[in-house]
């Protein structure tokens, strides 16, 4: 197990290096320039002096090597468009909001998605199965931005039940109820497609497992359906489901740029969009590092969960 974890960590470091390198290259190849250098009020001489101060007048490979060197020492650099603020501090300030939104969305996805998928599988081809499958299909086909706009129009504009933006009410008590009201709409939007995907995978995995020989033998021995489902079906059916959830977990935590921008949620997604518009290379790379680490750690965690679900799986 220790050797496997070490191998995965080494591979993860290589993945991070590739991701950072590709991200840096894409930023450099994108048309346009840094937004603060495109200010029409700046003269060419002032823009050149600002570029020199920021180190943007040096060759690309030198900028890249300097950033890698700083990163290896724990320095993610300073933002180019936020007055030289520390990238690490900016990311860590926004990270709790993103973790809160993504964590609640992940919890909703698990708590609702797996039971719905099991319910649909146990009522195969019945009205419940058809209704759940219809919900899953609609959830997968509905764009996040359109769903968010419709929910804002209905529950915020027309009915006035829920706030449409922000993480808390300005001038409010910032209590649990207020925070929950602000969470409801973005969590629904963020969780819908992932929940629908989990429902479909859970249903198909459950139907596949119940047709296997060892399940049929267990039923032929007189075990009740509940006992067979709990002891023989559930763990084996959850293995591919956990894999799918592990792939979607980083998407819930780090891929919420549209949702955070739509609901003005002060997290990493909104910061990433702003950094991309400003062509703020250090900030984009810093956010990319955090999201990549989330992907790597979630995949490693899922791999380590496999032996708990199926003792036959062993890592040497």
Description:
The protein is built from twelve helices and no strands. By secondary structure, the chain is mostly helical. It has a domain at 97-266: Orthogonal Bundle (MetI-like fold). It is globular and about 85 Å long. It starts with a helix and ends in a 7-residue tail after the last helix.
What do the pLDDT scores average to? 80
CATH superfamily of one domain: MetI-like
Sequence stretches where pLDDT stays below 50 over 5 or more residues: none
Tertiary shape: globular
CATH topology of one domain: MetI-like fold
Under the CATH scheme, which architecture of one domain would be assigned? Orthogonal Bundle
Q: How many strands, which pairing sense, and closed or not: the largest β-sheet?
A: none
The DSSP helix count reads 12
Determine the fraction of residues in helical runs and give it as a percent range: over 70%
The sequence of SSEs as H and E is: HHHHHHHHHHHH
Give the tally of β-strands. Answer: 0
Cα-atom radius of gyration: 24 Å
N- to C-terminal distance: 5 Å
Which structural class fits the helix and strand makeup? mainly alpha
Strand residues, percent: under 5%
């Amino acid at each position: 197990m220790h050797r496997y974890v070490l191998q995965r960590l080494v591979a993860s470091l290589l993945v991070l290096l590739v991701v950072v390198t590709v991200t840096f290259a894409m930023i450099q190849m994108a048309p346009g320039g840094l937004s603060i250098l495109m200010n029409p009020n700046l003269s060419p001489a002032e823009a050149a002096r600002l570029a020199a101060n920021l180190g943007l007048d040096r060759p690309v490979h030198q900028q890249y090597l300097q950033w890698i060197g700083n990163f290896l020492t724990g320095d993610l650099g300073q933002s180019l468009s936020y007055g030289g603020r520390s990238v690490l501090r900016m990311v860590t300030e926004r990270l709790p909001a993103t973790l809160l939104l993504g964590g609640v969305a992940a919890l909703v996805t698990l708590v609702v998605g797996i039971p719905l998928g099991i319910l649909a599988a146990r009522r195969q081809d019945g009205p419940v199965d058809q209704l759940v499958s219809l919900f899953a299909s609609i959830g997968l086909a509905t764009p996040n931005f359109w769903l968010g706009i419709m929910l804002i129009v209905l529950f915020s504009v027309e009915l006035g039940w829920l706030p449409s933006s922000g993480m808390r009410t300005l001038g409010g008590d910032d209590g649990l109820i207020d925070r929950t009201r602000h969470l409801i709409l973005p969590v629904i939007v963020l969780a819908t497609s992932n929940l629908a995907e989990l429902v479909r995978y859970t249903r198909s995995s459950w139907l596949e497992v119940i047709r296997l020989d060892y399940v049929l033998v267990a039923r032929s021995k007189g075990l009740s359906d509940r006992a067979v489902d709990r002891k023989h079906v559930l763990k084996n059916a959850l293995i591919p489901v956990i894999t799918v959830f592990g792939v979607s977990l980083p998407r819930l935590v780090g891929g919420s740029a549209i949702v955070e921008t739509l609901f003005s949620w002060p997290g990493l997604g909104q910061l990433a969009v702003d950094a991309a518009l400003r062509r703020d290379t250090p900030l984009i790379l810093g956010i990319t590092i955090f999201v990549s680490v989330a992907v790597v750690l979630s995949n490693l965690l899922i791999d380590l969960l496999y032996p708990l679900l199926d003792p036959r799986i062993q890592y040497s």
